[in-house]
Design brief:
There is one protein chain. Helices cover 50% and strands 4% of the residues. The protein is mainly α.
């Protein structure tokens, strides 16, 4: 009895295996009959449909004016080339803009007066400039701090004694130090220039609270700093027209030098290194050809013994 049950079960399993095998073979034959280009077209259609659905979903999302933040355009700065140096006349004008406009709120604590010698000013000009800045020193014999005229070795003094005083004078906002501001902001020179020249009225639906200003390039669009530049705000020593864009360009060039005072020397050393490495590479190539010529050009022949 048990033998008959086992044989019947084995027959049912065998028939099921044969059916599944036939189905698999038929599916394989059907897929083999579909041309390859049709399968590729189907895959591309699926991908296109999915991409269109994602784009449609993004387009249908609501956009609020408060969420709009412009990315600065890319400007053709003269010093961005591989072999281009900074415009030193622009550095001199930019320092003048900083001294007469920016220094009232922003510090430059990592830039010493001596670094300006030979870059945009001569030594006598920098000494005179440093003497006009009163630097805190001390303590004296009585233990008190005192003010003295600056020297070449001194750094640009801060307009505020501490951060709390700076915030109290600017409605709670802390004016950042500008020594490394170009490196510290995404977009570098393009962002700083766009920020200085990008002040405008807020669009419809955007409310800016009192004490703030609308600037589409600033994160959040509301900035505590009032528009710092306007036409004919200063008078350049070299007679260059002091338009807002010119002053913004000059002060950005000056801040670029502050962040990278080694900019010109780095590119000069790079040119020298490329020249030297090119000569060394040529010598190594010639040596390699000379040493390996005998090995690479020789012919090994097999001569069987007679």
């Amino acid at each position: 009895m048990f033998g008959r049950v086992a044989s019947a079960a084995a027959q049912r399993v065998g028939s099921a295996v044969r059916v599944s095998t036939r189905k698999a073979s038929s599916l394989a034959e059907a897929s083999a009959e579909i041309p390859r280009w049709k399968r590729a077209a189907g895959s591309l259609a699926i991908l296109a449909t999915g991409g269109a659905a994602i784009l449609a979903f993004e387009e249908l999302k609501p956009v609020h004016a408060n969420d709009i933040e412009l990315h600065p355009p890319q400007y053709p700065w003269s010093h961005n080339g591989y072999l281009e140096a900074l415009d030193h006349a622009s550095i001199r004008r930019g320092h003048q803009v900083y001294q007469q406009v920016c220094a009232a709120c922003h510090s430059l604590e990592r830039v010493a007066f001596r670094t300006l010698v030979g870059v945009a000013f001569n030594e006598e000009e920098v000494k005179e400039m440093a003497a006009e800045a009163m630097v805190e020193d001390g303590p004296d014999d009585q233990g008190n701090m005192f003010k003295r005229p600056g020297k070449l070795a001194d750094y640009h003094p801060s307009p505020y004694p501490n951060e709390e005083a700076a915030r109290a004078s600017n409605g709670g906002a802390y004016p950042p130090d500008l020594s490394l501001i170009v490196k510290a902001r995404h977009g570098r020179e393009d962002y700083i220039f766009s920020l200085l020249t990008g002040y405008c009225d807020p669009p419809a639906g955007v409310e800016i609270r009192e004490g703030l200003n609308y600037n589409p390039y600033f994160p959040g669009n509301a900035i505590a700093m009032a528009p710092p530049l306007y036409d004919d705000q200063i008078e350049y020593d070299d007679g260059t027209p002091a338009t807002m864009s010119q002053m913004a360009k000059d002060v950005v060039t000056f801040l670029t030098w502050c962040a990278e005072p080694e900019h010109d020397d780095r590119k000069r050393m790079g040119m020298k290194a490329i020249l030297v490495l090119s000569l060394v590479s040529a010598g190594l190539w010639y040596t390699k050809r000379h040493r390996w010529m005998s090995l690479k050009t020789r012919v090994i022949q097999f001569r069987p013994q007679k």
